[in-house]
Design a protein that fits this description.
The chain is mainly beta. It has two domains: about 110 residues, Sandwich (Immunoglobulin-like); about 100 residues, Cupredoxins -  blue copper proteins (Immunoglobulin-like). The chain has three helices and 16 strands.
């Protein structure tokens, strides 16, 4: 009896399935499952690059007066990671004069631009780096127009200093004749280098007292500059001065203002 009920039950289920298939719309197709296509992430990449910090730093050796400054620029993010494929401009000036102008530079991994200025004087070097984005060609993203300024002070090149002597002429304190011939000091005009030693000697054989005082004279009115001053020197007194900057340094004698000379420092 139980077996019969079991068979009836199975048959009933099969019939129900058959009816469902017969009643189905033959023109109805199963609903297809949409494939999940990942959203294009270029916009997100551009946004992330725009937020990326790009901090430049100079890679340079000592900058010496009379030489050019040669340097590279490295870029890092705020976490200290190197950032490459950076497009940038770099400019340098001294005394408001351009000594370097490199635009459209690109720092590529393993290929780093080297920048070189014109010859340096002893004034402060002002360097400006402007980041112009990351990437190549038309695909430039990230921070643009970000400016960073650097200042460097050139150093005096290590060199062997030379010594130059300037002496007072005989009778230069007794007569103004030496003024016309420009030989109150011998030599009255001398050229030296930054770092050289200039030795000033009162060698007047008449034993007259003199001075070497940096500055100018208007008529008989002196205007000391303070660059150096030997004070009043007796016979055979000496004084040493080492120039640290380039330029012309006029000087005169405090006691005999017609005695004038010039030291040219290169």
């Amino acid at each position: 009896m139980n077996l019969t009920y079991g068979v009836i039950t199975v048959v009933g289920v099969l019939v129900a399935i058959s009816l469902a298939l017969i009643m189905a719309d033959p023109n109805q197709t199963p609903e297809s499952r949409e494939l999940a296509i990942p959203e294009n992430n270029i916009a997100q990449i551009e946004e992330d690059l725009t937020k990326l910090s790009v901090n430049p730093s100079l890679l340079t050796s000592t900058s010496n007066v009379g030489d050019s400054l040669v340097f590279e620029i490295e870029f890092m993010d705020d976490d200290g990671n190197i950032v490459d494929h950076v497009n940038y401009d770099v400019f340098a000036t001294q005394n408001s004069n351009s000594i370097l102008s490199d635009s459209a530079a690109h720092r590529h991994p393993g290929k780093y631009p080297v920048h070189e200025t014109s010859t340096l004087d002893d004034s402060i070097i002002e360097i400006q780096v402007i980041v112009q984005g990351l990437g190549h060609g038309d695909d430039i993203y990230g921070p643009k127009g970000i400016e960073t300024d650097f200042s460097l002070i050139p150093a005096v090149s290590a060199q062997t200093a030379t010594s130059t002597e300037i002496k007072t002429a005989d009778n230069s304190g007794m007569s103004m004749d030496c003024q016309a011939s420009l030989d109150c000091y011998t030599p009255s005009i001398v050229t030296v280098s930054v770092g050289d030693v200039v030795t000033m000697i009162n060698s007047d054989s008449t034993a007259a007292m003199h001075s070497f005082t940096a500055g100018t004279v208007d008529g008989f009115t002196p205007s000391p500059s303070g660059t150096f001053d030997t004070g009043i020197m007796s016979a055979d007194d000496t004084f040493e001065w080492t120039p640290e900057t380039s330029g012309e340094v006029p000087y005169y004698c405090l006691l005999h203002t017609w005695m004038q000379g010039t030291i040219i420092v290169e």
